[in-house]
């Protein structure tokens, strides 16, 4: 596989992972924000971090048997996108 094709594949995969991360984040934190009567954007740091209240929400979801959002998907998507973009420029 040549470097341009690899770069394009990494870029596409990274963007797909970022979109998937945002969709998962919205589907997990959206109902929580709604039940708390607050704006979803107050949980925007939970998109890339699992600290503070994000960790509390994750822990409660795990105790309830739910699959919580995991920001590692966002980080992997960002890394693939960045590597793909850098390879395309070289």
Question: Overview of this structure, please?
Answer:
- The chain is mainly alpha-helical.
- It has one domain.
- It is 70% helix and 0% strand.
- The chain is built from three helices and no strands.
- It has helices spanning 3-36, 53-63, 72-89.
- The two termini are 16 Å apart.
Give a brief description.
By secondary structure, this protein is mostly helical. The protein is built from 3 helices and no strands.
Features:
single chain, 90 residues, mainly alpha, 3 helices, 70% helix, elongated
Report low-confidence residues grouped into runs of 5 or more.
Answer: none
Note the main sheet.
Answer: none
Number of domains: 1
Alpha-beta content class: mainly alpha
Anisotropy-based shape? elongated
Mean pLDDT over the residues: 95
SSE sequence, one letter per element? HHH
Strand residue percentage: under 5%
| Distance from first to last alpha carbon | 16 Å
CA radius of gyration: 16 Å
> Helical amount among residues, as a percent range?
over 70%
- Oligomeric state as shown: single chain
Helices and strands, with pairings:
Layout (H helix, E strand, L loop, with lengths): L2 H34 L16 H11 L8 H18 L1
Helix pairs in contact: 1-3
């Amino acid at each position: 596989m040549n470097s341009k094709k690899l770069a394009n594949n990494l870029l596409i995969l990274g963007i797909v992972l970022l979109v998937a991360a945002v969709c998962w984040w919205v589907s997990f934190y959206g109902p929580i924000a709604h039940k708390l009567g607050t704006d979803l954007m107050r949980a925007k740091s939970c998109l890339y971090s699992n600290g503070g209240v994000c960790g509390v929400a994750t822990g409660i979801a795990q105790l309830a048997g739910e699959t919580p959002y995991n920001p590692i998907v966002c980080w992997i998507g960002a890394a693939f996108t960045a590597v793909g973009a850098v390879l395309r420029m070289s």
